[in-house]
Amino acid sequence: MTPRVRPVLAGLLSMALVLQGAAPALAAPQGQEGKANAADLAKAADRAVGFTVKAAGESGDAKLKQENKDSEPFWQALSRLNDAVEKTQRGLTLKDDSFHANLALATSAVEEMKITYGMSGATDPAVKEGIEKVDAAVSLLRENYSREALRLKQGGALTPEEGQKLDEIKAKQGELQKKLKEVGEKVGDNKTLLKGVKEMQKKSQEVSRCNHDLSGFIFASAAISILNGWVWGWHWWWGPWGFWGPGFIGGFYDIYVDVWVDVPYDWDYLDDYYVDTADLDLGVDISDAELETMDQQLDEGDFDVTQAEAEDFSQDELAYEGEMDIVDQYEFEDPGMGDWGTGAEDMGFDDVGFDDMGGFDFD
Questions:
Q1: 263 lies in some domain
Q2: Which of 95, 157, 179, 201 allows an S-S link to 267, with CB 3.0 to 4.6 Å?
Q3: Would you state the pLDDT for residue 236?
């Protein structure tokens, strides 16, 4: 059964709502069944990416063929995700800051891949399984081993530096809202594209309204990676008016790195802290030899999309009204955060509904 896990933004926010609550992970001897440390989760993410490459390459769905122009954004997102996950693993092994920077990039790339897969119009169960499993592994890494996660467990008031960075993140939302308004006016006749714009507007507004405290700071920091992925994923279909996206979100990433680069981190935590994975199936059917082949396949692929091609995407796909079900799998009981037991008003939001983190399930 495919795992249903809450995505990163919802997971970190739920942690923010219970600052001093019980940790969801337990210390356990290496290799104990049903437990995983950071290295285990990074390996699971790497294998899930390889499985996704294999499944997409072997798919009988013509919409995923690499020679098909419409599949190029998906393959580019998949290649970007593969690179980020491999560098996350390397940083984990070396125990240096590249672990945190690339984990944030992996979070963005997962979101980008969901959108580009959905917009390709493909419907391959194996590819969908791979996407869901890499999403689960990356989410667990971010929720439990990022600097944000450890800062949240520490608790306490914001430092002056953290407060300043939170203000910077909030200020950036005004610029993003202006850009999204322009895009929305261009794609307003297409329900699928307009849903993506509206959901980004909604999440960006929530960031700009979040409380000036630790929980708000963690929420805003996590939102940067999510919004990065959404902009990357959608900008191909926004056409010439979407090419501000890559440069603009580079500023988001710079803020993220600047926020967390000097925060102390206990590197032993990566090895010693275990999360409970007993109810999850993160395994995929791919051998080590096949995994190496998948890396080569991505390395040899030509996934560059020119501006002219992207403009063609916008024209071709403006008629596309897909269901985007790859990102509609996450459901929560109600907009008040469901069984987490804390209402959205405690975060300072007017109406936070994390029924869907992919950007499409809303009225």
A1: yes
A2: 95
A3: 83
